[in-house]
Amino acid sequence: MCGVDMAKRAFKARRRILDTICGFRRDRRGATAIEFAMLAIPFTMLSFAILETTVSFTAQQVISNAADTLSRQIRTGQLTLANTTKSQFRDRLCGEISIIVGAGCPQLEYDLEYYTSFADVPKTIPRTPEGDIDTTGFTYNPGGNGTINSLRIFYRWPVMTDLMRSSLSNLPNDRTLLYATVTWQNEPF
Fold first, then answer.
1. CA 34, CA 88: separation in Å to the nearest integer?
2. For residue 176, which phi and psi values (nearest 5 degrees)?
3. Which residues of 91-102 are buried (b: 16+ CB within 10 A; e: fewer)?
4. What's the rounded Cα separation, in Å, for the pair 66 and 39?
5. Is 71 exposed, middle or buried (0-12, 13-18, 19+ CB in 10 A)?
6. How many Å apart are CA 139 and CA 58, to the nearest integer?
7. Which of 120, 106, 67 is nearest to 89 (CA)?
8. Minimal CA–CA distance to 111: which of 89, 92, 131?
9. What are the beta bridge partners of residue 112?
10. What is the pLDDT of residue 166?
11. Which of 146, 171, 145 is nearest to 159 (CA)?
12. Cβ-Cβ contacts under 8 Å for 81 (sequence gap 6 or more)
């Protein structure tokens, strides 16, 4: 009898070990945590990429709207060289984009010039050898009655997400260039 009890106990012990091992295979309670841990980093990276591009596209649109608004005021004669100085124009421009940029618009550059024909209007972005914006020829000259004008606005937008800096920044100091341009002919005023 003693041998039969020992055999039963050994069988039960083996059975418990096998049940425990099979139980681990059937138990899915930790699978969700493991799957989440595997997907958390790519999901976070994707979320930050979406936020970064959304904010920069919004800033680009605000700058484009500012260019349209100010060019309309120049086109109709509301803003002229006689009633607006270069610093006043910059303040107006900064006020138009202040909702999305820092106080004082420290990274803002603009070029407002009039030309004799549409063919003379610049078609490229002036760059320094280091890759920054070349502002040496930028002026504030809105022209007068019937002149052809071009307003170019440049903003050095900071790339905030470390993971996106290498793919989004196209200027020195981890910044990307936001750019808007408007070309028009002034109305008779």
1. 59
2. -120, 150
3. eebbebbeebbe
4. 41
5. buried
6. 27
7. 67
8. 89
9. 140, 151
10. 77
11. 171
12. 140, 141, 142, 144
Q: What pLDDT score does 24 carry?
A: 61
182, 68 contact by CB (below 8 A): yes
User: Angle of helix 31-75 relative to helix 86-97, nearest 10 degrees?
Assistant: 150
Give the per-residue pLDDT at 23: 65
Supply the Cα-derived Rg of the chain in whole angstroms: 32
- Phi first, then psi: what are they for 120, rounded to 5°? -80, -15
Distance (Å, rounded) from C-alpha 92 to C-alpha 70? 8
Per-residue pLDDT tens for 75-133? 999 999 999 999 999 999 999 999 998 888 999 999 999 999 999 999 999 999 999 99
pLDDT exceeds cutoff 70 at 180:
yes
CA torsion sign for 142, 70, 75, 57 is positive
In Å, what is the CA distance from 120 to each residue of 27, 99, 152, 188?
74, 33, 14, 21
Sheet holding 108-115, edge to edge: 108-115, 148-158, 175-185
Tokens 């914006």 locate to 133
